[in-house]
């Protein structure tokens, strides 16, 4: 009897996996551990792909776990009903449960190609809006100066405070000053490794104003966890005014212009 | 025929015996040629015992609260045996150490409770926000900012020797001598509060000091105040040691009279910090020469001339090529140290020299007195050597800046470069070309410093002497 109880306990423990799994997913949005708010234009496609895969794998997962529980419960050896039968396997079964997942994966691979191309391949034909150089442990930004060309003496240099116009295509030129970093914008569903020696274009467009996070997503040293920046989207007119103000501050020749911008004051 | 029948029956029996389902009674028999399936669920007591022991060994004690460390290098220096010292060198006596710790704690509190005497002029509220372990007692307000953001490089005592410090180049600032590099005041003066806030907000490009612009202004303010607190505390400690070394007999007790300590030890330190908050404490900024406009870029005619003048000054009276090199790549000379590292290097050389000398001195002909002095000296020298080894970072030379990179530690505005040129950099070998004090006269007229600024800012983009081309000089920026 004791062995039977152990057997049932194990079966119930295994049942807890799908039960708690489903419960966690159900509760996640309410306790703010679900997908971050999406303000990008292609985020919708990415998120719907995510949900599709989640649903598919979720159904299969729950079904498999249920069957596992059922076998553990009904065919517990301690119940001692009968001995397991040895079979050499079923060729039909093997073929079926290989073909169906392969077909599913093939479908997914083709279904997502458009979303991938939008984010990683269809670069808008425009000059870079800003150059982001990842560095241990900050994001150094360089806006083209009044001459509109990136890489000349009048460029605006800032750190960590990336401001951009809303509702406009943005092209970021991503570089790294030392080691591998990764430019991760959770609220825009953008993630791109910054590889030393490479100049990588990253493009996006935001549909909403507001301040969001830039975080580093590739382990880069002891300060990786605190390598955070802020990306803020503002209307174009406000962006132009901000840019002018920053140019003037960078050209300061008098102490009156001494207040160096602190983000929260904005 | 009969043999075949016999064999087939035997085989049949064997086959059925393999596939026969054992009855309950048989299932416990282990001698048959198929083992039974009987899971054993005995509790693994040895494993449980080991697990419980491991858990229990983590203990239930609390960690000790953080405490300030004594400035060991300075402390050991002050106890250099004076001539006539006969006893073996005993370092600082327990009493003396306790005295110093008590005095400092009375004036400055502890890392968790920074309770300062009002004569320091520090804001207690801001210090409380910055000090202590990271914790929150009001929703939306977090205390312990220094420990969260600064301590791993700058250390609990502000000695620039936190756990991460050894891996950094340049080393984090040691606040205790009260010297700061990037500020708006005269070379030997303290930085203003705004200077400290600026460094916190901008970080220091080209070093590991990050920008804290993402913190709120009150938080940055609190951190700047705490830096001042650590600096004033460090300087008071050094003033105390200096007093002990110069004014006190070997075993005299230090006066603990509040008035005396505040007036003679603390106030001279605090006065210097208060002085820079006055109106005229910052260096005067000359007007821009006619034709110079930093908003127009290097190709504007006024700026072109200015850059040419700046180039002449750079190679001429400015005296820059000696260190920065004729190509401004920073390859002039590279064997100097900044003041914090220089102190360690020079003390180290002195000690090493004295140690060799003292060891070689023959003790055979000495009187008992001399021998005692000799032994005391030897002990002190060895202790000093150990302290330099164990309580200071390995000194690193400071190379002159490569001006072609476009990385400016103190800030990239024309105003910042002007300040660096005018006063030089306090604590670094970089000299200033402006007057050394109010009403003085510099190597280069103040207005002409703007021409040097213009030249310096054009250097990263000056390709083979051609201005304004959009090909940065430094290879890594060219792709």
Structure description:
The complex is a heterodimer of chains A (266) and B (479). With 266 residues, chain A is of the alpha+beta class. Chain A folds into 2 domains: 2-80; 130-253, Immunoglobulin-like (Sandwich). In chain A, 38% of the residues lie in helices and 21% in strands. In chain A, helix 1 (2-27) packs antiparallel against helix 2 (43-74). Chain B is an all-alpha fold and 479 residues long. Chain B folds into 3 domains: 72-275, Cytochrome Bc1 Complex, Chain D, domain 2 (Orthogonal Bundle); 301-334 and 400-477, Cytochrome c-like domain (Cytochrome Bc1 Complex, Chain D, domain 2, Orthogonal Bundle), CATH 1.10.760; 339-390. Helices cover 45% and strands 1% of the residues of chain B. In chain B, strands 1-2 form a two-stranded antiparallel ribbon. The N and C termini of chain B lie far apart (93 Å). Mean pLDDT of chain B is 84; it is low at 1-8, 10-20 and 26-32. At the A-B interface, helix 1, strand 10 and helix 5 of A face helix 8, helix 15 and helix 16 of B.
Question: How is the topology of this model organized?
Answer:
The complex is a heterodimer of chains A (266) and B (479).
Chain A: H1 2-27, H2 43-74, H3 91-111, H4 113-120, E1 130-135, E2 138-143, E3 156-159, E4 161-165, E5 170-176, E6 181-185, E7 190-194, E8 200-204, E9 210-216, E10 228-234, H5 236-250
Parallel strand pairs in A: 1-5, 4-10
Antiparallel strand pairs in A: 1-2, 2-3, 5-8, 6-7, 6-9, 9-10
Chain B: H1 2-19, H2 45-57, H3 72-78, H4 94-108, H5 124-130, E1 135-138, E2 141-143, H6 145-149, H7 151-154, H8 193-202, H9 217-247, H10 258-275, H11 301-315, H12 321-324, H13 339-360, H14 368-390, H15 414-423, H16 446-458
Antiparallel strand pairs in B: 1-2
Helix pairs in contact in B: 3-14, 4-9, 5-9, 8-9, 9-10, 11-16, 13-14, 15-16
Descriptive tags:
heterodimer, A: 266 residues, alpha+beta, Immunoglobulin-like, 2 domains, five-stranded mixed beta sheet, 5 helices, 10 strands, elongated, disordered C terminus, B: 479 residues, mainly alpha, Cytochrome Bc1 Complex, Chain D, domain 2, 3 domains, two-stranded antiparallel sheet, 16 helices, 2 strands, 1% strand, disordered N terminus
């Amino acid at each position: 009897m004791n062995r039977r109880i152990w057997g049932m306990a194990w079966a119930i423990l295994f049942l807890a996996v799908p039960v708690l799994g489903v419960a966690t997913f159900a509760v996640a949005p309410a306790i703010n551990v679900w997908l971050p708010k999406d303000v990008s234009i292609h985020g919708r496609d990415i998120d719907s792909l995510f949900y599709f895969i989640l649903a598919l794998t979720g159904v299969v997962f729950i079904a498999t776990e249920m069957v596992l529980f059922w076998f553990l419960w009904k065919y517990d050896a301690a119940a001692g009903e009968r001995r397991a039968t040895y079979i050499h396997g079923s060729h039909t079964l093997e073929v079926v449960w290989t073909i169906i997942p392969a077909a599913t994966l093939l479908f997914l691979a083709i279904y997502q190609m458009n979303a991938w191309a939008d984010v990683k391949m269809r670069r808008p034909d425009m000059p870079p809006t800003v150059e982001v150089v990842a560095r241990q442990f900050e994001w150094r930004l360089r806006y083209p100066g009044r001459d509109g060309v990136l890489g000349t003496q009048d460029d605006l240099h800032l750190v960590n405070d990336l401001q951009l116009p809303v509702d406009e295509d943005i092209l970021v030129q991503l570089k790294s000053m030392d080691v591998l970093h990764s430019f991760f914008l959770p609220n825009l569903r953008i993630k791109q490794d910054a590889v030393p020696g490479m100049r990588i274009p990253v493009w996006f467009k935001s549909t909403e104003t507001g301040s969001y996070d830039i975080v580093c997503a590739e382990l880069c040293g002891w300060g990786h966890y605190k390598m955070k920046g802020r990306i803020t989207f503002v209307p174009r007119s406000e962006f132009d005014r901000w840019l002018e103000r920053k140019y003037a501050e960078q050209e300061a020749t008098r102490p009156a212009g001494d207040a160096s911008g602190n983000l929260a004051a904005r | 025929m009969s043999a075949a029948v016999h064999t087939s029956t035997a085989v049949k029996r064997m086959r059925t015996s393999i596939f026969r389902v054992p009855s309950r009674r048989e299932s416990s028999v282990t001698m048959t040629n198929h083992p039974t399936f009987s899971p054993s669920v005995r509790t693994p007591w040895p494993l449980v015992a080991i697990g419980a022991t491991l858990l229990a060994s983590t203990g239930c004690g609390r960690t000790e609260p953080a405490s300030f460390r004594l400035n060991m290098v300075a402390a050991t220096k002050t106890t250099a045996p004076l001539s006539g010292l006969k006893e073996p060198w005993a370092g600082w006596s327990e009493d003396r150490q306790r005295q110093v710790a008590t005095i400092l704690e009375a004036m400055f509190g502890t890392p968790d409770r920074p309770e300062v005497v009002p004569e320091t002029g520090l804001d207690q509220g801001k210090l409380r926000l910055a000090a202590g372990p990271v914790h929150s007692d009001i929703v939306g307000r977090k205390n312990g900012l220094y420990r969260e953001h600064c301590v791993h490089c700058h250390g609990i005592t502000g000695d620039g020797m936190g756990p991460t410090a050894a891996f950094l180049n340049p080393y984090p600032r040691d606040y205790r001598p009260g010297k700061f590099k990037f500020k708006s005041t005269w070379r030997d003066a303290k930085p203003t509060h705004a200077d400290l806030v600026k460094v916190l907000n901008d970080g220091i490009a080209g070093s590991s000091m990050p920008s804290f612009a993402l913190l709120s202004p009150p938080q940055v303010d609190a951190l700047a105040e705490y830096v001042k607190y650590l600096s004033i505390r460090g300087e008071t400690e050094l003033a105390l040691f200096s007093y002990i070394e110069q004014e006190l007999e070997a075993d005299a007790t230090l006066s603990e009279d509040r008035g005396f300590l505040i007036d003679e030890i603390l106030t001279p330190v605090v006065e210097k910090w208060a002085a820079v908050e006055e109106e005229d404490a910052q260096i005067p900024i000359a007007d821009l020469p006619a034709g110079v406009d930093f908003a127009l870029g290097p190709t504007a005619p006024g700026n072109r001339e200015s850059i040419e003048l700046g180039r002449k000054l750079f190679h001429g009276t400015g005296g820059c090529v000696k260190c920065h090199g004729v190509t401004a790549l920073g390859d002039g000379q590279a064997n100097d140290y900044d003041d914090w590292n220089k102190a360690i290097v020079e003390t180290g050389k002195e000690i090493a020299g004295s140690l060799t000398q003292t060891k070689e001195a023959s003790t055979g002909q000495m009187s008992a007195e001399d021998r005692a002095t000799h032994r005391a000296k030897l002990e002190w020298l060895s202790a000093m050597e150990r302290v330099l080894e164990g309580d200071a970072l390995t000194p690193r030379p400071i190379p002159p800046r490569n001006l072609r990179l476009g990385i400016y530690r103190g800030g990239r505005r024309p105003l910042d470069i002007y300040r660096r040129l005018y006063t030089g950099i306090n604590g670094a070998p970089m000299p200033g070309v402006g007057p050394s004090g109010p009403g003085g006269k510099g190597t280069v007229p103040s207005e002409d410093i703007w021409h040097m600024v213009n030249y310096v800012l054009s250097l990263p983009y000056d390709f083979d002497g051609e201005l304004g081309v959009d090909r940065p000089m430094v290879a890594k920026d060219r792709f």
